[in-house]
Amino acid sequence: MTLNIIVLIAGLLFGLGLSLSQMIYRDRVLGFLEITGTWYPTLLFVLAGAVTVTLITFLFVLRFPHPLLSKHFYVPRKQNIDIPLILGAAIFGIGWGIGGYCPRRSIVALVWVIWNPVLFFIAFILVSVTYNWYSTRKHHSS
Predict the structure, then answer these.
(1) Is pTM beyond 0.85 here?
(2) Which structural domain, as residue segments, surrounds residue 140?
(3) 24 and 54 belong to one structural domain
(4) How big is the chain by its Cα radius of gyration, in Å?
(5) What single DSSP character describes residue 82?
(6) Residue among 87, 135, 88, 98 nearest 120 (CA)
(7) b/e string for 5-35 if b means 16 or more Cβ within 10 A?
(8) How far, in Å, CA of 129 to CA of 140, rounded?
(9) 95 and 56: one domain?
């Protein structure tokens, strides 16, 4: 129960941060991605702020033997760059550039009940479930 409350608070903070920085508006994101026209660097400042806070926080948090509510840290161990990573990043970037939504931002935008993020989110869920089913099936058949 405590973990669920912390996750809820983290989600509320994330949503509040996106809302305050106006990153819930797709025009802001698309303006950032349009580097040859009218470029809006606001997303760059949001990203820089998030990375700075995370780096400083990780310097302290990762010194503990484990998180307060878990037995170990869930830190990625993979360090190599492979084809699935490159393809996934490229496909993510193309989708982001076309729609102006990324998964987390679309969830926050759902609050406004605008159909574009709703349709995006439905498509995101369908593709995620399909890929998970396919990769699990492929893994079991080998």
Answers:
(1) no
(2) 78-142
(3) yes
(4) 18
(5) -
(6) 98
(7) eeeeeeeeeebeebeebebbbbebbbbbeee
(8) 17
(9) no
